[in-house]
UniProtKB/TrEMBL annotation:
Keyword annotations: Bacterial flagellum, Cell projection, Cilium, Flagellum
Pfam families: Flg_bb_rod (PF00460), Flg_bbr_C (PF06429), LlgE_F_G_D1 (PF22692)
NCBIfam families per the UniProt record, alphabetical: FlgEFG_subfam
GO biological-process terms attached to the record: bacterial-type flagellum-dependent swarming motility
PANTHER family in the cross-refs: FLAGELLAR BASAL-BODY ROD PROTEIN FLGG, FLAGELLAR PROTEIN
GO annotations of cellular component type: bacterial-type flagellum basal body
Superkingdom of origin organism: Bacteria
Sequence similarity: Belongs to the flagella basal body rod proteins family.
Record protein name field: Flagellar hook-basal body protein
Species whose genome carries this gene: Halobacillus salinus
Length: 275
């Protein structure tokens, strides 16, 4: 009986966490460069149930009893959300007409899960990476993200536009007056090893390989476009359907938990009553 409580409760907790992940995806459906999180569920270790008994075998001396085990089946003890992994598929490209907006168009790469990122500073001033090219120019002339963090060049320095108009080539080189400044672009051989740290920026995970300069490998193909943005890869219709299914699953576990609670109440108040 108590095992049923824990199994139903674990299902509700897993459904709640999945709902939070899906809700976050839905709220970022129109965030440029956002990559949808995908949650994976895993069952707790299964228990193998066996029926134990004995079988009598007649002998000349009267008979002997041999232990017999008959397999009944497996019993799941619960479920949990093992991890959430971003999906790094390319988002739709849309024109904005704003010259500070940029989009990275993914080309052929040597690794199946490889992806190119813009280099930016995070709030702690450390090197981070993003696919969100919704940039702007601050009052000092520096190219920044919408959160006010610097966009970095190929040498890891903030890019100062001096308040001038600039053009961006397909190779990601900014032409500002008579200067040419290459954007800092990094390549991750396995984008799924990247960890979100908020505000649409990523850091390599603990076991991830270090990111390399995207221009250093001729097999890495990409195209930087100006005045366009890469949209979110969230599918609102599919996400809404998954949210409804997760909600129904939560309700089912809730009803199971309520049924166990009623049975326990009856066992305590009626079956266990002294007469």
């Amino acid at each position: 009986m108590l095992r049923g409580f824990y199994t139903a409760a674990s299902g509700m907790v897993a459904n709640q966490r999945m709902q939070e992940t899906l809700s976050n995806n839905m709220s970022n459906a129109y965030t440029p460069g956002y990559k949808a999180d995908q949650g994976t569920m895993r069952a707790f270790p299964e228990l193998l149930i066996e029926q134990m008994g004995a079988k009598e075998i007649p002998t000349t001396t009267g008979g002997i009893n041999l232990p017999v085990r008959q397999e009944v089946g497996s019993l799941n003890t619960g479920v949990y959300v093992q991890e959430t992994v971003p999906s790094f598929s390319q988002g739709d490209i849309r024109e904005t007409g704003i010259t500070t907006d940029m989009a990275l168009i993914q080309g052929d790469v040597p690794d199946e899960k490889g992806m190119v990122f813009f280099n930016v500073q995070n709030e702690e001033g450390e090197l981070s990476h993003t696919r969100n090219g919704n940039f702007t120019v601050d009052n000092e002339g520096f190219l920044t993200t919408n959160q006010g963090n610097y966009v970095l060049d190929d040498a890891g320095n903030p890019i100062n536009t001096d308040g001038l108009e600039f053009d961006v080539s397909g190779e990601g080189v900014l032409t500002i007056g008579d200067q040419q400044i290459p954007l800092g672009l990094s390549y991750a051989a396995n984008a799924e090893d990247m960890v979100k740290e908020g505000n649409d920026v990523y850091q390599p995970g603990e076991e991830a390989a270090a990111l390399v300069n995207a221009r250093a490998n001729p097999e890495v193909a990409f195209d930087v476009r100006q005045s366009v943005l890469e949209g979110s890869n969230v599918d609102p219709a599919r996400t809404m359907t998954e949210m409804m299914n997760t909600y129904r699953s939560f309700e089912m576990n809730q009803r199971v938990l309520k049924a166990y609670d009623q049975n326990m109440q009856k066992a305590v108040t009626e079956i266990g009553r002294l007469r």
